[in-house]
Amino acid sequence: MLKHPAFFALLIQIAALLITVCFVVGQTAVELSLFEWSMAQGILAGTISYLLRMPAWWTPMHVFFVPLIIFTLAQDIAPIWFLLLFLGLLLTYGKSFKTQVPLYLSSEKANQVLATLLPKNRQFSFIDLGSGCGGLLSNLSAKKRNGLFYGIESAPIPFLISKIRSLFNPGCTISWGDFWQQDFSQYDVVYAYLSPVPMMSLWQKAKKEMRPGSLLISNTFMIPGVAPDKAIKLDDFSGSTLYLWKI
To answer: Residue 138 in contact with residue 172, Cβ under 8 Å?
Structure first.
């Protein structure tokens, strides 16, 4: 549990808050407003995060977390809006808190390059791990009629969108679930656009289950310590790269 970044970040916030409260209670020389003290707590939390070498993007999150809470509470916003926002995020991102895999959407350039990598004259099967709103599968199935395209998604709203799209596209099959429970031996091409966190586990699963000659493709994220057989830079908005491993 301690290894989970979000839980570790929570401990940092609690530690910074306790230190700030102890300082406020133990001295009378410095008088600041509640918001100013929250900024002090945020700066302390951000400093601790930096010193403990958490990923760089955690530092601004720590700095502004409590100040934004104080600022938001001061706006006298009806609680129902917070509930609706929370539900919206939960339905959109699903178990991202647990999996540490956010919702990424493949670019049009990724669609174009992937189409050139797929077999031309024989039938094949393709699965998108965490297929999001289904745009990639819809585009590829329209271009590659000799393919069977599968997607698996666990976030409710993206799954619903992709499922509706698949009803008008007989070449796509969208399933609700966890791709870690999927048998990769059924597919000729496995495509992933995940995050750095699960890549080594994905490689272990791919080596164990994928058939010889099949292809593992990762958008943006490499497998630590495993050189790809091919890397294709994409001229898209995020400067992504497709990494290919032939099993």
So the answer is: yes
Please write the tens of the pLDDT for every residue from 128-154.
Answer: 998 888 889 998 998 898 999 999 988
Residue 126 near residue 182, CB atoms below 8 Å: no
Q: What is the pTM of this model?
A: 0.72
DSSP state for residue 53 in the 8-state scheme: T
Three-state SS string over 20-52 comes to HHHHHHHCCCCCCCHHHHHHHHHHHHHHHHHHC
Half-sphere exposure for 141 (CA within 13 Å, toward CB): 23
**Planar angle of CA 157, 186, 206, nearest 5 degrees:** 85
Q: Is the domain defined by 108-246 classed in CATH 3.40.50.150?
A: yes
Q: Kindly report the three-state secondary structure assignment for every residue of 144-160.
A: CCCEEEEEEECCHHHHH
199, 223 contact by CB (below 8 A): yes
Q: Is 189 helix (H, G, I), strand (E, B) or coil?
A: strand
Rg (CA), the chain: 23
